[in-house]
Amino acid sequence: xxFTAESIFDGITYAKGAGTMKQLMYLIGxxxxxxxxxxxFKQHEFSNAVLNDLLHSMEPFFNK
Length: 64
Hints:
By secondary structure, the chain is mainly alpha-helical. Helices cover 73% and strands 0% of the residues.
């Protein structure tokens, strides 16, 4: 229900998510991060995705 959803996501949740994405960007580089996100959004543009889908899109850029 709406109350449960609102109680799960707050400013702390979004700040942590943003911080995590920023760390990932610094880890693989801004250009690689942008390419990985573009690939991720293209693959899942009309479907649902889970964390492993995002990580799978980022994985090829870790060894470059």
